[in-house]
Amino acid sequence: MKVLKITCTGMERLELDNTLAALQEQVEGYIEVFHFGRKDARGICNENGIAMGLPLNLLATLMTDITIRGTVLIVGIDPDDPFAEDFCDCPEDLLAIADEYATKEKDRPTDAGTVTE
């Protein structure tokens, strides 16, 4: 299953097995599924992210308009079934964000922000 993985330091496309164990491994704990304004996608995060003191995930927070801590996975669902529990590939337009991010990161100067005397 194609997913968009958003960490506190970046994002990437991933190919994961569509299993609970694979999702839990990526978010480092029990999963919590959340809605963020799209009928064709859901977010998955660590259910205990706040209690565990996971860092704020600013990228995911800005994308979803929900305060998120730790790693987030964006997965697809059937848009015609609002109660869908089966995940599928993340929508391509969301995966394209990871491609764009990777391109910008690759083109960013490596010495940006360093102070030289």
Polypeptide structure, described:
With 117 residues, the protein is α+β, with helices and mostly antiparallel strands. The chain has a domain at 1-45. The chain is built from three helices and five strands. It has helices at 20-27, 58-64, 92-107, and strands spanning 2-6, 11-15, 31-34, 41-46, 72-76. It has a five-stranded antiparallel β-sheet with strand order 2-1-5-4-3. β1 and β2 form a beta hairpin. The protein starts with a strand and ends in a 10-residue tail after the last helix.
What keywords describe this structure?
117 residues, alpha+beta, five-stranded antiparallel β-sheet, globular
Q: What is the beta-strand fraction? A: 15-25%
Distance between the termini: 49 Å
Number of strands: 5
| Rg calc | 15 Å
The spatial strand order of the largest sheet comes to 2-1-5-4-3
The structural class is alpha+beta
Unreliable stretches, pLDDT < 50, 5 or more residues? Answer: none
Mean pLDDT metric? 88
Order of helices and strands: EEHEEHEH
Helical stretch tally: 3
Helix content: 25-40%
Shape: globular
How would you characterize the largest beta sheet?
Answer: 5 strands, antiparallel
Strands, helices and their partners?
Layout: E1 2-6, E2 11-15, H1 20-27, E3 31-34, E4 41-46, H2 58-64, E5 72-76, H3 92-107
Antiparallel strand pairs: 1-2, 1-5, 3-4, 4-5
